[in-house]
Amino acid sequence: VDLPPDGVVLDVGAFQGEWTQRILDRAAAAGPASLRIHAFEPVPNALRSFEANIGDNPNVTLHPFGLGGRDRVEALSLRGEGSSIHLDGSSPSSLGIRDVELRDVDSVLTELGVEHIDLMKVNIEGGEFELIDRLHETGWLERTGTVIVQFHEFGPSAYRGRRRNRRQLAETHTCTWNYPWVYERWDPLDVR
Asked: What is the pLDDT of residue 29?
């Protein structure tokens, strides 16, 4: 994805910062940039790893909460990079349960003063359906460049949700590549 020097990038489900670091590396290779990355991660251990991996980079703001369709606190089943509010916390594969804050994406972007998103990566373990619904409902998809999203089959009504979200994305974007239930890339129909 070609990003403008002053681009705005969202890493939703930032985990330990690997994807954010790749974006920073690409921006650095392209020359001086004032790229702005907003990374969202509600899991405390992942937050600490992100901070250790990314350091004190002035182009990156790490937000210690997740994005969703509305403000709330949810019980999250801890499973490393597969931690989710949509998985059973009493399962033997769970490492415990932690309450995490989720915030309404529309309110957060407004508070941050974001006007346009150049690139957004979404990997939030079943929360993507609600997030894309809200981005569509509030007109943010129209103001978003490339969207890279991982849909998860265990999410609530996952097959129906993926079909709905793909229809919503198709109003403003075209699917450039698609590895179902792995990752999909959606590029805007009109160039900014």
From this structure: 85
